[in-house]
Amino acid sequence: MSGRASSDGANGPRDGANGPGDDASATRGSAGGNSSHHLPQELIRAKRDGARLSTEQLRFVADGIADGGLSDAQVAAFAMAVFFRGLDVDERIAFTAALRDTGTVLDWSHEDLPGPVLDKHSSGGVGDKVSLILAPVVAACGGAVPMIAGRGLGHTGGTLDKLDAIPDYESIPGLERLRAAVRAAGCAIVGQTPDLAPADRRLYAIRDASGSVESIPLLVSSILSKKLAAGLDALVLDVKWGSGAFSPTLAVARELAHGLVEVARANGLRAAALLTDMHECLGTTAGNALEVREALDMLRGGPADPRLDAVTRALSARLLVLGGLSTDEAAARAAVSRALSSGAAADRFARMVVSLGGPADLLERPQRHLPAAPVMAPAEAERPGFVREVDARALGLVVVALGGGRRRESDPIDHAVGLAEVVGRGARVGPGERPLAVVHARDGRAAAHAAAAVRRAFDVADTPPEPASPVTEELG
Which end of the chain is less packed: N or C, by CB atoms within 10 Å? Predict the structure, then answer.
């Protein structure tokens, strides 16, 4: 059983006399007033002018986003006001809780679970398939992992899009099926259901359309409202930085990581963050079915890309310690190794797939179930040498151009296309030697365009670069 027992989904501070931000009306520069009858335009104007909003006012905004009390124009205006003016710490804590409380908050205390309820979140990157490996690993080590994942944005792939490559896998099940899958497999990687943080669903879509996605306060609230709604005991955060990530610089990644850990803990959730390097593709594949296949290979004990292996083990071990399943990092890493080498993690993944409607023999016969592109073409370097730099964002955009990502939210995805055998920094390449990547495409023309774009994404020099750890630092 999980050690946490919540009442009707309570998970951290709720509205009340002493909630964060309740003294805002008495603070210089605050919006003022505690009337229950708020005018949306006045709150928007107050935030636009730099005022601090109270917990009550932020709950009014969150409820209005969820129930339609605020129009799309007003939601967009609020998001843009926050984009330029920000939210202070108390506002972030209060708004995150308010978004969480617009829907169901899962309570696992009555479920027959073997251990604590744990999860991981990634800020996204090219080739990031860590979740597909980490969730079953942690389940095999005694955790319960109800992982709420997302779809791809821009040049970064989405975990749900990868899972949609598996035939009949129900990536957005109802809450009862989610609970049943966690009981049966110990883990379930699914999308945000309409029941969980519905205000965030609407706010996220409007932020995307209005150009305010990059607001760190809104990112923090969006990410954590869903994780808090999942009823977790502990959360590890993978905050990526570099050309293939949302955060291009280490400074931006640190700011995001600090904000996530701070707000999670203030809302009663144990959390820690790892900052990881995304200056190149994570693993050797980018593209939905190709990434599922790479994750399955690692789960089955096959050779793993060193960077993917290092990041996955580091995050898994940190989560086991954070959740109280291991006493220290050494013990946690040993547990992760056992879960992988014994086949226990692979078994958990297989059980998860079956519980959510997918094929029972996916691990044994992935080629039978995962879609494959009809054309494969190597993208060779134009000169011999060593890969010194990689524009990972450009590689992600190659996958999007092939049809493996979305230019618009409504675009369909071709799960078969993408890049395989992608090399990293320090690899020796050249004409007639190891290619930079192998393009998987629908036709020869698309493959040729993609191969040319891949070549432009790599800087090849006479000497290799200094090696760098994929895990840059840890916070919390």
Answer: N
